[in-house]
């Protein structure tokens, strides 16, 4: 995520992500009450992929008699200084720590956590940067990588979470009946078209586009169920698709949406294409605002997320 608190930072451009996080508050509260022993004195929570915006979520208020120790985890390059400046504004006081590192490996001592909330491809994907609309082989590669990564993630959490502890996952998703070729999320396609325009104009080598794929997969309930059952460390207490209608999409503000995406994806593009090309990519995509707005108005009802509550066996 783009660090700092400037105009184009993730801190200032994560309103839609906050909307999706807020949508899960009631479900997380219910999962905690129904599945965990809340009579203990000290409760340990980790927010994985916390980033630096207002998307982190805490339930400290609902159990005033318990002391909470919250660990905020993200990559070592995350701007934890900005994150901690934004905390403690209206919440019950709690203890907080930063845990830098990838959550695809161990981060904590064995059996130490009670709850853990959460928020590629070697083959050539010619002239595309995602599996939306690509060949079936590309989609299969994404599916395989998702199963591998989520399996590693769950195995690491299984070592850290106490028996009977809870992990809550909130992921962008698609209904099972929608085929991969019609997931309906065309923002990557708009970015992709800007790249292809630059290739056609001789500004960019086509091989750079062919070798770049956005590492984002939209799982279905069946995808997640298969991973959990294969992992066999957790039982599924609740799994459900929800449809949080974002105010950003309601207003069909394409320029704001692109700026939000810039805050999220910019560093990923910079690492592959460099600063100059990346700036040009997003500048050109902003010029497609009218087309993007039309797409947003048609598809605003379709955006969904997957809520999963898992209990450590």
Describe this structure in words.
This is S-adenosylmethionine-dependent methyltransferase. Keywords: Magnesium, Metal-binding, Methyltransferase, Transferase. InterPro entries: MeTrfase_7 (IPR005299), MeTrfase_capping (IPR042086), SAM-dependent_MTases_sf (IPR029063). One of its GO terms (molecular function) is methyltransferase activity. This protein has 313 residues and is of the alpha/beta class. The chain has a single domain (15-312), classed as 3-Layer(aba) Sandwich (Rossmann fold). It is built from eleven helices and seven strands. The chain has helices at 15-23, 25-35, 80-85, 136-160, 187-200, 206-210, 221-231, 247-250, 254-273, 275-286, 289-299, and strands spanning 42-48, 67-74, 95-100, 113-117, 161-173, 234-242, 304-312. The protein has a four-stranded mixed sheet with strand order 4-5-7-6, sandwiched between helices. The protein has a three-stranded parallel sheet with strand order 1-2-3, with no helix packed on it. Helix 4 links the parallel strand 4 (113-117) and strand 5. The chain is globular. The two termini are 34 Å apart. The model has no long low-confidence stretch (mean pLDDT 80).
Order of helices and strands: HHEEHEEHEHHHEHHHHE
Q: What's the architecture, going by CATH?
A: 3-Layer(aba) Sandwich
Average pLDDT confidence is 80
Number of DSSP helices?
11
Pfam family, one: Methyltransf_7
GO molecular function, one term: methyltransferase activity
Protein name: S-adenosylmethionine-dependent methyltransferase
Keywords: Magnesium, Metal-binding, Methyltransferase, Transferase
């Amino acid at each position: 995520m783009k660090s700092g608190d400037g105009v184009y930072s993730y801190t200032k451009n994560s309103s839609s992500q906050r909307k999706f996080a807020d949508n899960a508050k009631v479900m997380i509260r219910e999962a905690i009450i129904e599945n965990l022993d809340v009579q203990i004195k000290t409760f340990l929570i980790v927010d994985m992929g916390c980033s630096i915006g207002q998307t982190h979520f805490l339930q400290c208020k609902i159990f005033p008699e318990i002391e909470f120790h919250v660990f905020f985890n993200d990559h070592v390059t995350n701007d934890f200084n900005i994150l901690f400046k934004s905390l403690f504004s209206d919440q019950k006081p709690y203890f907080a720590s930063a845990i830098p590192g990838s959550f695809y490996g161990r981060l904590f001592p064995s059996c130490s956590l009670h709850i853990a909330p959460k928020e590629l491809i070697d083959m050539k994907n010619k002239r595309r940067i995602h599996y939306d609309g690509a060949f079936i082989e590309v989609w299969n590669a994404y599916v395989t990588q998702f199963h591998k990564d989520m399996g590693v993630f769950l195995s690491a959490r299984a070592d850290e979470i106490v028996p009977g502890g809870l992990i809550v996952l909130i992921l962008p998703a698609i209904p099972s009946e929608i085929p991969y070729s019609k997931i309906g999320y065309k923002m990557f396609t708009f970015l992709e078209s800007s790249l292809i325009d630059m290739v056609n104009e001789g500004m960019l080598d086509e091989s750079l586009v062919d070798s770049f794929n956005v590492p984002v997969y939209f799982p279905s309930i069946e995808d997640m169920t298969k991973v959990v059952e294969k992992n066999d460390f957790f039982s599924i207490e609740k799994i459900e698709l929800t449809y949080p209608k974002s105010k950003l999409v309601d207003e069909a503000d394409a320029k704001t949406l692109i700026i939000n995406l810039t805050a999220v994806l910019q560093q990923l593009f910079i690492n592959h294409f460099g600063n100059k090309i990346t700036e040009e990519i997003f500048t050109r995509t902003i010029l497609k605002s009218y087309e993007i707005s039309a797409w947003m108005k048609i598809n605003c009802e379709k955006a969904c997320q997957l809520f999963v509550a898992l209990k450590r066996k």
